[in-house]
UniProtKB/TrEMBL annotation:
PANTHER family: PTHR35564, TYPE VI SECRETION SYSTEM BASEPLATE SUBUNIT TSSG. NCBIfam families: VI_chp_1. InterPro entries: T6SS_TssG-like. It comes from Campylobacter jejuni. It comes from the Bacteria. This is Type VI secretion system baseplate subunit TssG. The gene is tssG. It holds the Pfam family T6SS_TssG.
Length: 278
């Protein structure tokens, strides 16, 4: 059996990609997997190298075969370790045992609270390139928001230019036509996303607001799932209820600034915006 790693960068939906049976006299079975490879979606190599390897049409020979030479031995070591019959394996509560620590290190998990929630999604966590649809699905399951939570991409984000990068008269630090920048800030569309939660009640929305019971949990979850690469905003589309209407002297209505409505409204909902991660 020759263990090989799928070089494609598409997010896999299974652990074993394919099995090829050789027609030679000494039959060799090639088993292609989607985890723990030196190339492919689980690799730690830079993206430009992985992209070049994935586009290399060498018929699974050449560089692909070179990497799979090492992948084969790496995967066999992993297989032998988990297949040992006489090795004592025990797990303690709260994942305090050494085996759990090793497994969590492979997944990049440092906090045990996160481990309890995201361990069922281990194949997703093994990949450093997590698609938006999969992250949405994970958040929907963990926060019980099926078909209510989505992620908005490519939002405008204002970035301030540091003093060392600004143009200064009399100092040769920029070249016109090369790296010359005007102004104190610029707009980027690659550094910001938003979590949009719709069709929820006011009492449910309060839990996601600052000081709410689910606010920090949602913040830590999105930072973990996106490797803390983005600034994140939160949009809450709240269904209208009578407790959102401002009534002077009433203490059971919404707090000022958190979806409190002044006067009469014809809308069946209101949208609250706040920053989640900066």
């Amino acid at each position: 059996i020759f263990l090989r790693t799928n070089k494609s960068l598409k997010h896999p939906n299974k652990d074993i990609e394919k099995i090829i049976f050789s027609e030679h006299e000494q039959s060799v079975i090639e088993l292609f997997i989607n985890f723990m490879g030196l190339h492919g979606v689980s690799s730690q190599l830079p993206s430009f190298m992985l992209d070049k390897l994935s586009r290399n049409e060498d018929g699974d020979q050449g560089w692909t075969l070179f990497f799979d030479f090492f992948n084969h031995y790496l995967l066999w070591i992993f297989f032998d370790v988990i297949s040992l019959k006489n090795y004592p394996r025990s797990f303690n509560e709260n994942f305090k045992d050494s085996i759990s620590k090793i497994l969590f290190s492979m997944l990049g998990i440092k906090e045990y609270d996160i481990a309890k929630k995201y361990l069922p999604f281990a194949p997703l966590l093994l990949s450093l390139r997590r698609p938006k649809t999969h992250i949405e699905r994970v958040l929907q399951v963990n926060f019980k928001l099926k078909d209510k939570l989505s992620i908005i991409e490519n939002l405008p984000h204002q970035i301030l230019i540091s003093n060392s990068q600004k143009n200064n008269l009399g100092i040769k630090n920029n070249i016109l036509g090369n790296n010359f920048i005007l102004g104190d800030k610029f707009i980027s569309y690659q550094n910001k996303i938003a979590i949009y939660i719709k069709d929820i009640s006011y009492q449910e929305a309060v839990k996601f607001m600052p000081n709410g019971t689910k606010h920090d949990d949602l913040k830590n979850s999105i930072m973990f799932l996106t490797n803390n690469e983005f600034c994140v905003d939160l949009y809450l589309k709240i269904n209208y209820s009578s407790e959102m209407k401002f009534v002077l002297g009433e203490e059971n209505t919404a707090k000022l600034g958190w979806a409190k409505i002044l006067g009469n409204t014809q809308k069946k909902y209101t949208i609250v915006y706040m920053k989640l991660c900066e």
